[in-house]
């Protein structure tokens, strides 16, 4: 008698899409080659105290020069799809004007190399590397940046649309807006909440403008979407203060993006909360119909789930500026090297909730993964069983969400290889492939072998 597997991963269909993901600034290096100009990240890295040990993306994984080798590495993992991002300051130096052919040619070669090896390219147009010149003119808080983004998007789209079917406009606008303009934790490092809320709107507008134009000029059906980082926001207790804090966190984390994208309106409670702080979303007539241009796929990036209290440690429900408090309360779960709690069950709940609140929108997990304190042996091999466990439980969580009715069609591991982890520099490693930054040698970790075998098993159903 053959025992049926009770691993939820074995319920995934053989048609499930598997991939690995990266982003341009995190892997490419070659920061000043072939006409590339600085992005806000080049500037931020050169600002003392902003990035761990003053690291930057000047060389990173040197992917720009090692691309064919890296595509071969991707092929060896047995994935269907590779999700990468295009660097705006390579394709359109300075953020406006004509295309820079030398910069765009890199992505042309990358796409050809992928197709040659039987790997589908999945292009993300913007993964945080805004041309510095556009930031100097105000950045995402300024409306014109949305139009600049749509123009840039079309330069890339026109070149690659004959070979690329799947497109993501923006990666994680929450990070661009909040970490970049409200909390100063990422480039450009501003701390201005009203500016951040303007950035939210202009990011969404840029998405919608690009989506409309891409769809109109697509030579064949395309698969178009946006990627959001999302988690769960649960109240610490059922007190009114905690419930309201969790609602506000969810409002700015999920609904301020999902509601305009899907329903063409901002959530009333979020608009009210912002108004109470004297902040207005700079909506102009017609914007919301642009933002809600139909999409085919929602990219979901999941890392952790959160619990919120409406009071600070001393019990106050207002901060120094008089704004209501939302304090993330650790739940004592095991954490990754980032200090992020490991809560796979929250992943199932998030996906189930999204499928209920925003029905009819297929989802793909465009990022999920974890940093751990890797130790390489003398051959450079990392026995990262903690990362294997993270992937195993989180892919299982996706499978459970599917069983509960969520329409999730694929999963991308973050990340193909160790890379520049933004403000954490090279200290934090998310790769399933180890990168030795002295030699640039790539060595698949235990997790890469596990991922390859898991894909093979599910495909064979
Ligand atoms: C992604 O962002 C990025 O797309 C990618 O470039 C990056 O390398 C990767 O994740 C890893 O960081 O402190 O528990 O409250 C992740 C967005 C937003 C996820 C903040 C974690 C805080 C978790 N992150 N969030 S916690």
From TrEMBL:
What Gene Ontology terms describe where this protein resides (cellular component)?
Answer: cytosol
Keyword tags:
Carbohydrate metabolism, Cellulose degradation, Glycosidase, Hydrolase, Polysaccharide degradation
Q: Enumerate the PROSITE patterns for this protein.
A: GLYCOSYL_HYDROL_F1_1, GLYCOSYL_HYDROL_F1_2
The top EC class is hydrolase
Family of this protein: Belongs to the glycosyl hydrolase 1 family.
Catalytic residues (UniProt): 172 (proton donor), 367 (nucleophile)
What is the designated name of this protein? Beta-glucosidase
Give the UniProt record's GO annotations in the biological process aspect: cellulose catabolic process
What Gene Ontology molecular-function terms does this entry list? beta-glucosidase activity
Per its UniProt entry, which superkingdom is the organism in? Bacteria
Query: Is Methyltransferase there in the keyword field?
Result: no
EC code(s) of this entry: 3.2.1.21
Reaction equation(s) it catalyzes? Hydrolysis of terminal, non-reducing beta-D-glucosyl residues with release of beta-D-glucose
Residues holding substrate: 26, 127, 171, 303, 414, 421-422
Species of provenance: Kibdelosporangium phytohabitans
